[in-house]
Amino acid sequence: MAGEHDHSCGCGHHDGDHSLRLAPARDWSQASDEETVCYCQTMTKGALVEAIRQGAYTLPLLKTMTGAGRGRQCKQRHPDGRGCEADLEELIRLYAQPPTLARSGGCGH
User: Fold this and answer.
1) Phi, psi angle pair for 50, to nearest 5°
2) Which of 9, 14, 16, 64 is spaced 20 to 30 Å from 81 by Cα?
C-alpha cells in the first residue's frame, strides 16, 4: 500500500511506543534553507518548504512528492540517530496551507 514501509527502514516509528511522538530536532522556523532535514535523501529545508508550498500539506503528500522520510538508513545518517518524520511534520505545521474548497452552485457554475 502507498505510504507504508517495512520495519527495517530505520525511521524509528517501529520501535517501542508509537503513542510517543518525537520532537523536531531543531527550531525549523529559524533554520536556513540550506539546512539538511532528511539525511537519507539529502533533502534541505528549502526544497521541502517549496514542495509544501506546491501542495504537500500532509506528511504522506510530502513524502510522495519529495521522497523525504523514505530512506533505509535514517538512524545511521541522521546526526541525532533518528528518523526525520518529526522534522517533516514540523515543517508542514510551520509552512503548509491546506487548500480551500470553492463553494459553487453544485454544477461548477
Assistant:
1) -60, -45
2) 64
- Alpha carbon distances (Å) from 106 to 50, 82, 103: 33, 48, 8
pTM: 0.72
User: According to the model, what pLDDT value does residue 5 have?
Assistant: 44
Q: Which residue has the higher pLDDT, 20 or 47?
A: 47
| Dihedral of alpha carbons 80, 34, 88, 70, sign | negative
75: Cα within 13 Å, side-chain hemisphere: 9
Domains in the chain, number: 1
pLDDT over threshold 80, residue 70:
yes
47 domain-assigned? yes
Percent helix / strand / coil, the chain, rounded to 5: 30, 5, 65
Closest CA to 71 of 45, 44, 42, 34: 42
For residue 53, give its domain range: 36-95
